[in-house]
Amino acid sequence: MNFSKTNRLVVSASPWITIGISFVLMVIILFQTVIMYNREKQHVGNHLMEKGVVWIKSFEADAGTGVSGNHFSLQRVLEKTASQSGILYMFLVDASGKILAHNDRKMIGTQRDDTALENRVTHPGNPGWRIVEKENNTRYFEVYKPLAFTFPKVAENRPVMFIGMDVHPFEQAVREDLQHNILMITIVFLVGLAGIISLFWSRKVIRSHRLLQDTRAFAAETIASLPMGIIIVDKSRHIRYMNDTACSLLGINILGITDKTAGDVLPEDIWHLHKIADANGKGLEKEIVVDAEKTGATPISVMVTNIFDQAGDFIGFLFILKDLSQIRALELKIRRKESLAALGTLASGIAHEVRNPLSSIKGYAGFFGSLFEDTSENKKAARLMVQEIDRVDRVISELLEFARPADLKLHPTQLDQFIKNSLRIIRHEAESAGIRVKEKIDAPLPKLNLDPDRFSQVLLNLYINAIQAMKHGGDLTVDVRVKENAVLFAVSDTGEGILPDDQAAVFNPYFTTKKKGTGLGLAIVHKIIEGHNGTIWLESFKGKGTTFFVSIPLNKQQRILP
Fold first, then answer.
1. Which helix (H) or strand (E) holds 221?
2. Nearest to 390 by CA among 359, 415, 413, 367
3. Tens digit of pLDDT for each residue in 75-108?
């Protein structure tokens, strides 16, 4: 069978397939209509039953202590309840069918035969409902429920309360729901039938449309997931698209760009590039620094190019933003390592070439000093020479300490006692300077892999800096706790604080604000912390003091960042 015969067969069979599907659909819809009618009827009945149960419970609550056999009180409570709007009648019968209380007092004491009494549920809280027809073909919606209490003059079974309500709201609600459901089902049927008919004639269109949608979805998801920021601006200078990465880099709320031009939303340094790209007629790439409120100053690479359609007409601009902060941080780390390597070589040469002459000079200074009286100026000058030689030697030692590789010997260390031992070393010096030492240890702390000697050097350096910052006394506070899978050390003082311009440079080698400082203490501290895969940062306020934070992760792959 060739293609044309097959095509004709499909076309001729389509109406019969459509009729068959429509018939099956009609049967399903009719069956669904019956189910929905019964469900709606049950739903409305349960709603009215709940309303009746509320009145019955109200009767039980008001009856209260009146059930001890005082039928007069019981009758009075029933009449009060029956007076509420929506109740047509209300009565209470015992297990034998005798009416104990009725809103129509003439009915009290009469006998009632009722299947609801024969099949009653003796456990309280199990109500039922039904439609009853009485004299003059009057119909009522009746709710009945065994009460939750008994009284002596009634048989061993609990009495049953009956409430009659107008059935018309029930029937009207069911009728309206049925009409609504029939109307909706009819509409659904017609729409479905039309959809089935059109399906056979538009399969190719639907398939093509679906393929186009999938392609667009893939493209949109790909663009949205790119680690680069994408901004599309149309020829009227309005932003047509901006992905989350671009919003994050620029600190822009995507909801705030509606009905705004790109010049009102984008930073001037970025938007200005489109003029250059437009003038050159080709792409342009430039590195700029964007100062966003949340991310701070971030170096980014911006590439802008014109967009043309298939006919070659200009339709807009494309901006591609790339975050360079990690690249710049890596470059800085590499330069730092290169500088340390060069500094190590220089330090070794200085130590070899300078320390030997210093030793000779120190020896001669000591010799010449011994030739004079202790009180003479020459003796004092000799001692000063020895002190200065020792200071130069100490600078060389610190330089070697800073330049040498961090060869750490890590051991599981119990922090509680380790912190107490480090504070014991400087406590006497602090108290002599009028400084109170306070410790806040969130015990019990976990064991931490540390090089005890090198990390003790870190803490002692921070303690001594804090003591030296409080020239007129104050408080030295050491706070240690576990936070976000890391141990956080905080060393605080109440000194004068560090100037904002100096805070960014405190960890640089040879930066110091002390008259006799070498500027290598905090640089060495920073290096030791990095060797422990940790981070260090500070917070300082003028006149309020400084706090240095050190975070060492329990898991070396996790850090607390400032």
1. helix 203-225
2. 359
3. 888 888 888 887 888 888 887 788 888 888 888 8
Burial of residue 537, with CB atoms counted within 10 A of its CB: 0-12 exposed, 13-18 middle, 19 or more buried: middle
Among 550, 528, 529, residue whose Cα is nearest residue 538:
550
253 has a pLDDT exceeding 70: yes
> Rounded CA gap, 374 and 285, in Å?
74
Structure-derived torsion over alpha carbons of residues 469, 471, 472, 473, reported in degrees to the nearest 10: 50
User: Could you tell me if 87 and 55 are in contact, meaning their C-beta atoms sit under 8 angstroms apart?
Assistant: yes
- Residue 339 main-chain phi, psi, to 5 deg: -65, -40
Confidence band (pLDDT; 50, 70, 90) for 492?
Answer: very high
The rounded distance, in Å, linking the Cα atoms of 13 and 24 is 17
Give backbone dihedrals phi and psi of 171, rounded to 5 degrees, phi first. Answer: -65, -40
Please tell me the distance from the alpha carbon of residue 487 to that of residue 478, in angstroms, as a whole number: 13
Q: Which amino acid is at 21?
A: I
Q: Rounded to whole angstroms, how far apart are CA atoms 461 and 413?
A: 19
SS (H, E, C) 390-448: HHHHHHHHHHHHHHCCCCCCCEEEEHHHHHHHHHHHHHHHHHHCCEEEEEEECCCCCEE
523, 509 contact by CB (below 8 A): yes
Higher-pLDDT residue of 311, 125: 311
Looking at the predicted structure, is the pLDDT value of residue 548 above 90?
yes
**Which residues, including other chains, have CB under 8 Å from residue 288's CB and lie 6 or more apart?**
269, 270, 299, 300, 302
* Mean pLDDT to the nearest integer, 108-131: 69
Torsion angle of the four alpha carbons 241, 243, 244, 249, in this order, in degrees rounded to the nearest 10: -90
Distances in whole angstroms, Cα of residue 465 to Cα of each of 418, 440, 516: 19, 19, 13
Q: What is the pLDDT at residue 4?
A: 46
Is the peptide bond preceding residue 444 cis, with omega within 30 degrees of 0? yes
Query: Do the beta carbons of residue 237 and residue 260 sit within 8 Å?
Result: no
Distances (CA, A) of 457 to 35, 261, 404, 450: 81, 57, 15, 12
E strand or H helix at 523, and its extent? helix 521-531
CA distances in angstroms from 294 to 229, 247, 248, 320, listed in the order given: 16, 11, 9, 21
Where residue 510 falls (left for φ over 0; alpha for ψ -120 to 50; beta otherwise) is left
Length of the chain: 562
Q: Which pLDDT value is given to residue 546?
A: 92
Pairing assessment for the beta strands 435-441 and 474-482 based on DSSP bridges: parallel
Say how far apart CA 24 and CA 153 lie, in whole Å: 63
